[in-house]
Design a protein that fits this description.
The complex is a heterodimer.
Chain A (H helix, E strand, L loop, with lengths): L1 H49 L32 H12 L2 H11 L18 H15 L3 H8 L5 H10 L4 E2 H8 L3 H14 L2 E4 L4 E4 L1 H36 L4 H11 L15
Antiparallel strand pairs in A: 1-3, 2-3
Helix pairs in contact in A: 9-10
Chain B lengths: L3 E2 L4 E3 L3 E5 L3 E5 L4 E7 L2 E8 L2 E11 L2 E11 L2 E6 L7 E3 L2 H6 L5 H17 L10 E6 L5 E7 L2 E6 L2 E5 L4 E4 L3 E5 L5 E7 L6 E7 L39 H4 L1
Antiparallel strand pairs in B: 1-5, 2-5, 2-10, 3-4, 4-7, 5-6, 6-9, 7-8, 9-11, 11-12, 12-13, 13-14, 14-15, 15-16, 16-17, 17-18
Classes of the chains: A mainly alpha, B mainly beta.
Chain lengths: ~280, ~250
């Protein structure tokens, strides 16, 4: 029994010694920590004293850049990013993306409409759109015979020359004769359709011929139509030439020469180089 | 206005034109009777009866084109022309046969008809034109009254239910139910007037004549603001004022 008591006492003594040694170690750590804090504070104070602060708190020129917030030496916590897993997930996402883009592009039809002045299309009232659609429907429903009635008087170069001549002002029969080179009934043959169509009006007092508002409008729109069609044709032929050029690289030289000789028949109008009338 | 008829009756020996202006002509055929209209023994016009016809160009040239129409018709009965006329050289004294040919039994009957025409004109307060102007008051073959006032290149013409006022580049047309003014810049102002059978109502029926050429012709470049380069208006402007014209639809 006494042996057991002695053993217990001995163990208790050892525990006390351990406890004491731990307390001393803790005290020593605290001291070291306090000393380190004092040293750091002292170094910061010295640094601040050695570098004068700018008036607006900004570092002076030449000073090292201030580290970003949250990245200071005492608060810095590096973010760990798992790049490998991210790369894997990106690879999964990208796989088949090219194919998807190719399919989407193939489904988009080529846009043929040329949009002019897109700023003009803003805030178009619905009533205007409706009336425009109604008007377009009305225009599109014009039958060919009505169109022919308007266009047939213009379908002759002599009549168009007469209209062009009358644009400058009223002319007598003799004036028109000397301008066109047509005389008598030949000239009357051309003037009559223009008068019947209302494009020209004849003054009975002196036999003077005037171009009317309708005539002037018809002639101007005929000019516009010519310009547009010529432009369109020139565009088509240019595209055809480009296609021929691209195809010719795979064909024989003889075939290429033949194609080019055919295209040469369609000479581009000199007006095709002019500015767009719009 | 105290107008009188001269007692002497003349007849045209060849065709003559009591009115000949830029936009109007009245032609009298040979064998037509006529007598002078006097004011204080001064000749201020004639009254004639016989085969005659007139042509009036109620046409004005605007930058947008010509507007109006040319009107011709035959005259019937006695007509009054006021103005400084001179057709004596183309005339001789009328004989009994000339009177019969023109439908008058005696000289007195022609003079009586002439006086009635003159009184009618005085009731209308017709004035003697100055500066080589002419006034014609008469009737057509279709028994329509006619008034024509001509002064150089201007004229006022009342024919059937229409009235025209024409200058070189402006035309005013008045009809029973509407009024239209074609201005010198090719624009038209219209007024619809429904009266009589309908309730009195006035409304603007039309404004603007297509004038795309204003922006295309060099002559119209003066309207371009001076700050624009080369004093040119953008080309797409020319079609904007065009009626029923939609370039977008065309494209």
């Amino acid at each position: 029994m006494s042996n057991d008591e002695d053993t217990l006492k001995h163990e208790l003594d050892e525990i006390r010694e351990l406890k004491e040694s731990l307390r001393e170690e803790l005290e020593e750590i605290r001291r070291e920590k306090e000393e380190l804090r004092q040293i750091r504070a002292e170094s910061i104070r010295r640094r601040r004293e050695s570098t004068p602060r700018p008036p607006h708190g900004r570092p002076p020129h030449g000073a090292p850049p201030r580290p970003p917030r949250g990245h200071s030496s005492h608060g810095y916590r590096p973010t760990v990013i798992d790049l490998e897993s991210l790369a894997e997930s990106l690879e999964d996402m990208m796989s088949g993306l090219g194919e998807q883009i190719r399919v989407a592009m193939s489904s988009i039809k080529p846009i043929d409409v040329r949009i002019r002045n897109p700023s003009m299309r803003r805030d178009v009232p619905k009533s205007r759109i409706k009336s425009r659609a109604k008007r377009l429907k009305k225009v599109e429903s014009i039958p060919p015979d009505r169109i022919a009635r308007i266009l047939s008087p213009l379908g002759n170069v002599e009549r168009l020359r007469i209209l062009d001549y009358l644009k400058d002002g009223a002319k007598t029969f003799n004036d028109i004769e000397s301008y066109t080179g047509k005389t008598g009934s030949s000239l009357t043959h051309h003037l009559s359709p223009l008068i019947e169509a209302g494009y020209v009006v004849k003054g009975a007092v002196r036999g003077t011929y005037y171009i009317t508002v309708s005539g002037r409008l018809a002639y101007r729109l005929a000019q516009w139509l010519t310009s547009q069609v010529e432009q369109e044709l020139s565009t088509i032929f240019t595209e055809e030439e480009e296609i021929v050029d691209s195809d010719s690289t795979t064909e024989d030289e003889d075939v290429l020469d033949e194609d080019l000789s055919e295209d040469d028949e369609f000479e581009l109008s000199p007006e095709s180089d002019e500015e767009d009338v719009w | 206005m105290n107008l009188q008829i001269d007692e002497s009756i003349m007849v045209t020996s060849r065709s003559c034109q009591p009115i000949l202006a830029e936009k109007a002509v009245v032609e009298l055929q040979p064998g037509s009777l006529w007598t002078r209209v006097l004011r204080d023994d001064e000749v201020v016009g004639i009254i004639f009866a016989g085969e005659a016809h007139f042509a009036v160009d109620a046409i004005a040239e605007t930058p947008a084109g010509a507007v109006g129409e040319s009107i011709t018709d035959d005259l019937e009965g006695c007509q009054l022309v006021l103005g400084d006329l001179d057709i004596v050289d183309a005339s001789r004294e009328a004989s009994e046969d000339d009177l019969h040919t023109n439908g008058f039994d005696t000289a007195a009957s022609f003079l009586e008809k002439a006086r009635s025409i003159l009184n009618d004109a005085q009731l209308r307060k017709a004035r003697i034109p100055s500066n080589h102007g002419r006034v014609l008051i008469g009737h057509t073959l279709t028994n329509s009254s006619l008034v024509l006032v001509v002064s150089k290149d201007k004229l006022v013409f009342v024919y059937r239910d229409r009235t025209f006022v024409v200058t070189d580049d402006t035309l005013i047309e008045v009809r029973k139910d509407r009024l239209r003014v074609y201005g010198r810049h090719g624009r038209v102002f219209g007024l619809s007037m429904l009266g009589h059978d309908h309730q009195h109502h006035e409304s603007i029926i039309d404004v603007g004549v297509p004038q795309p050429w204003d922006f295309w012709d060099d002559s119209a470049s003066d309207c371009c603001p001076p700050h624009m380069p080369h004093r040119r208006i953008p080309r797409y402007d020319w079609h904007r004022a065009t009626h029923d014209w939609d370039p977008d639809w065309v494209v």
